[in-house]
Amino acid sequence: MEPKPHLLTDLRTRAAYSEGAGIHRIVPAAVAVPRGVDALQRLVRWAAETGTRLVPRGAGSGMAGGSVGRDVVVDLSQGFRWTAPDWSRRTLWAGASVTWADVTDAARAFGLRLPPDPSSGAFATSGGMVATNAAGPRSVRCGSVRRWVEAIEIIDAAGEARRIVRGEGSGERFVLSPDQRRLVAARFPKTRKNSAGYALNHFADSGDELDLLIGSEGTLAFVTAVEWRLEPIPPDVAGVALGFRTLEQLTEAVPFLVALNPSAVELLDRTLLDCVRPAGVDLPEGLEIESLLLVEFERETQAAARGVVGDAVRGLAASTAHVATAVDRAALERLWAVRRLASPALARLPETQRSLQVVEDGCVPLERLGAYVGGIRAAAERHGIPVAVFGHAGDGHVHVNALPDVTRPGWSDGLGALYRDAVELLLALGGTPSGEHGVGRLRAGLLERFYGPEVAALFRGVKRAYDERSLFNPGVIIPSADWAPLADLKVGPGAASIPDDIAARLREIERTAAWATPKLELARSPDPDSRAPSP
Ligand SMILES: Cc1cc2nc3c(=O)[nH]c(=O)nc-3n(C[C@H](O)[C@H](O)[C@H](O)COP(=O)(O)OP(=O)(O)OC[C@H]3O[C@@H](n4cnc5c(N)ncnc54)[C@H](O)[C@@H]3O)c2cc1C
Known about the structure:
Layout: H1 11-16, E1 30-32, H2 37-50, E2 54-57, E3 72-75, E4 83-86, E5 91-95, H3 100-108, E6 112-113, H4 126-132, H5 139-142, E7 149-155, E8 161-165, H6 178-187, H7 200-206, H8 209-213, E9 222-229, E10 231-232, E11 236-244, H9 247-258, E12 264-269, H10 270-276, E13 291-299, H11 302-315, E14 320-326, H12 329-347, H13 369-382, E15 387-392, E16 397-402, H14 411-428, H15 447-451, H16 453-466, E17 498-499, H17 500-512, H18 519-523, E18 533-534
Parallel strand pairs: 1-3, 2-3
Antiparallel strand pairs: 4-5, 5-9, 6-10, 7-8, 7-9, 11-13, 11-14, 12-13, 12-15, 15-16, 17-18
Bound molecules: flavin-adenine dinucleotide.
């Protein structure tokens, strides 16, 4: 029998781990912060012996509620901080706690980088990025992290440590029959990105166990280390900002731009521009546009980068209402300032208008992008919930920040109605509810609607093959019997009670995106009077 591991059960620590970046607040039963593989293995073995359920967690920046839960939250953001590069092979092993920024900083000196570039790279951990199959603006060219993972090290539900390497197959643990492969090919969405459910489509193609584990959101195994494949940083870059007066023009422009092999095609919708203008973001005066695209091209030479910008501008001359080009890195930086200022501008909204990510990750086939943006705007209008729409247009993938006035009666009903309408819209457009954030608790119960009952049964089969007793992250990907997407909100009268000072610190972390803050720091009491619980 494994001795009982060190678990933190005081209210302040549990409260510090009750929230992630999404909409949820759920106070866990306990918290564990293992330092290294041996400690984690002992914890998992003890959990297997006692039937204790575990919630893997990195920085907690995940949006879908996968890193919060009622069971024992296991914080891997601290104890797995090591790197082992092999620059000659252009690879780097990173412990689960190592962030994208750590990897990128180490690689830059050797002219290398990890291509997918999540905007949360300053704090997203290697374990969290693999678990969610994270992506970023550059994914239009380089795909999600899946393509860049050579191998991972895991601890499975029996507490065994294993290394899983690309190209080494899957053993007998889980297999798909030819009929099941056909089913998967028919039922998976035809979108450029997808992080909803186990990636049976990639598994069917590669036969690699790695493809089941990437994007499994902590439901099959703990990831303790990742071997990243790196690429040389392209020498030159140029870009252009393009404004469009109609969503139809936007929809036609995007496939044209994608065919030019850009490194990013990012959308700032009118709804977002309207939010950032009052915050002093510099936009062309008096310009009535429905959407702005920021497009970037990386090339081997400056002439090639400038040349392709010229091709883009000429090709879209008839439909653009605004054009600003950037022919070097400094000019490009200025062009992208508007994108970077968007998040701080949203964070500065009045405290009564909360940004709640409930439909934030929909992805549709490219030719339906305008229909999706238009449909979301209409649903938001119907239900009285302002939204800000932005994101990765080149992948047909946009983020929607719902911005309800939480002092207005009925706001949570409106939010629920927006969620339901967005689901119907995505189903009608052949989309997926998650392009890069994962389904977590927020979308677990939707998978059967998007994939059908037979694929949902295959998902349950994958879970059984790895974690028969559902000890790892119950309720994530495989929905719990009482699944309710907008239960356990961190906002409103139903929010779980936690100490005031911790609630305030968590809010500050959300506003400033300070997810790298070690959560144990929050648990330390600043003064004895601040221990009163708050609703
Ligand atoms: C401001 C902001 C911007 C963002 N931008 C992007 C973006 O551009 N692209 C993008 O893809 N995402 C983005 N995200 C979402 C988030 O940063 C990513 O999902 C990230 O990969 C999560 O990493 P994390 O370490 O915070 O994981 P967590 O949030 O702690 O966990 C996320 C999921 O992974 C599981 N998990 C975490 N670590 C492990 C592990 N070691 N082993 C097994 N399972 C584990 C958890 O159980 C959970 O299900 C953004 C978030 C914020 C707040």
